[in-house]
Amino acid sequence: MTIDGISARTAAAPLAGRRRRSPWTFRVCIAILGVAVAAAVFAPLVAPYEPDATDFSAIWLPPGPGHWLGTDQLGRDILSRVIHGARPSLLGAIALLAFATVLGVLIGVVAAWRRGWVDTVLARITDVMFAFPGLLFVVLVIAVFDRGPATAVIGMGLAFAPLIAKFTRAIALEELARPYVDAYRLQGVGGVQLIARYLLPNLMPTLVGYLVVLFGEGLMSLASLNFLGFGAQPPSSEWGLMVQEGRAGVIQGVLGPALIPGLTIAVVVVATNVVGVRLSDKLAVRT
Amino acid sequence: MSEAVRVSDLTKTYPARRGGARVVAVKDVSFELAKGESLGLVGESGSGKTTLTRLLVGLARPDAGTIVIDGRTREGRERGRAARLRRAKEVQMVFQDPYGSLDRRMSVEAALRDVLRRHLPDPAKDTVRARISELMDHVGLSEKHLGSRPHELSGGQRQRVAIAKALAVDPAVLVLDEAVSALDVSVQAQILALLNRIRAETGVSLVFVTHDLAVVNEVTGQILVMYKGEAVERGVTAEVLRRPRHPYTDMLLSSAPGPNWQPERVAELRAAFAGTP
Ligand SMILES: Nc1ncnc2c1ncn2[C@@H]1O[C@H](COP(=O)(O)OP(=O)(O)O)[C@@H](O)[C@H]1O
Ligand SMILES: [Mg+2]
């Protein structure tokens, strides 16, 4: 690049653009999430071993050249298992959030739109849902559906929905008080169309930032459920379940099999939180 | 039928706030507005002007009284798309807040197209485009603003867009609630001139709400003075401003800073008013 080109570029970049550049922590976190998503998508291509390939001649190996992160009590390669575990772990959290979002946004928007007794009734319902610990929902759902990934997702989804409902109601009330909403009403826009076509898209930026933060929490809650054995079942290498299975090694003084998936969860959760908080700051700019 | 609006004995009461009495925001207000004419609604803040306009356009429901617009009585309970669109054609409104009255996701063009698709009898692409140009011209915005989103426009430009959106429906009556109050004086003057031109060109009837008496004479032929929810004086704007018959109007007039402004007299009149209901 010529010197002229460089100076032209610096001149063209306004001061605001420089200030708006994201801090390195944000970019690192985006990269972490990118790696996690790539692992989930391309697991079979990038993992060095099959996740459930046992090798009884290589049990509890420490990290080394053959197995970069060591092996577990069945001689399975931990790196491969963590990579393959990205898919059930992330998909689980996505499913959980999708379910909770549909339910929560529906409740929140209807409450804000209808006001009056509808709002009161929905507020009571969400309060009661709030009062139950998430685990209780899971136990209830297990009683009906038996344990499994779907059980954990639905149970936790029911626990997350009231959070999203409360948040959505608050921002929807604020949005509905803006005169442009009245202007749409006066144009003859019906209630359903007003909500679906104009209100929800205007809530989305604020909502998305919040949901990204909740995603981290959802991931962690699901991992805890799987750790407790309510959700994913062996031979799945879902991260929470890996921690559970890795506990056998801890007693023997081998920390890797439990620690590595645990750290993976922690890193991904922290990364989504950082990204979520920044996104909600950036997206929720209101005119 | 030469009447655009006929309002009879309109009353609206709000339930008591905690520890307070019920608020009678609008009480027994009646007025008529001829087609193509403009009515000024003046009064101090809290006198019930906004409530009256919200009743008029149907954003609030009156406790009592009737509203006839463009020859049709407005009923509270009308459902269905056809009824909504017909009501929209009767009356449109421009709001006070130039920042909140536009959908921030939509460019000027998108917002106008959105209205026109709903309200043009023939929403073909070419007719919509032609109508958009016409509207932009009406409100004095250049075509280069078509792609702008609300945050890229000034307060005056936003109100022009809001007026264009309201006109896009082609309403019989246009209500402006303090639509220029948040703008600075020179911009105000431009928009007032614009309103006069629009009224002359399209024949739309205007209800123009303001607390600023200096403004009301610019755009309205008739005036209605509100005080504590009641209409205390009605008449031809220029005459009422020259020879107010009601003491409240007199006080409003002398409150406005001007060449003969006497702060002592304003204080005196106000003190006298605090006693009378
Ligand atoms: N939604 C409402 N709930 C309760 N009181 C209201 C409401 N809107 C207006 N009021 C009251 O009605 C009175 C008239 O208000 P408003 O119509 O806004 O007057 P203006 O527009 O002339 O300032 C005020 O006392 C105000 O407090
Ligand atoms: Mg007002």
UniProtKB/TrEMBL annotation, chain B:
InterPro entries named in the record: AAA+_ATPase, ABC_transp_ATP-bind, ABC_transporter-like_ATP-bd, ABC_transporter-like_CS, Oligopep_ABC_C, P-loop_NTPase
Keyword terms: ATP-binding, Nucleotide-binding, Transport
Pfam families, sorted: ABC_tran, oligo_HPY
Any GO molecular function: ATP hydrolysis activity
GO biological process: peptide transport; transmembrane transport
Gene3D superfamilies reported in the protein's UniProt record: P-loop containing nucleotide triphosphate hydrolases
ABC transporter domain segment(s): 5-253
Family statement: Belongs to the ABC transporter superfamily.
Identification of the protein by name: ABC transporter ATP-binding protein
Species per Swiss-Prot/TrEMBL record: Nonomuraea aridisoli
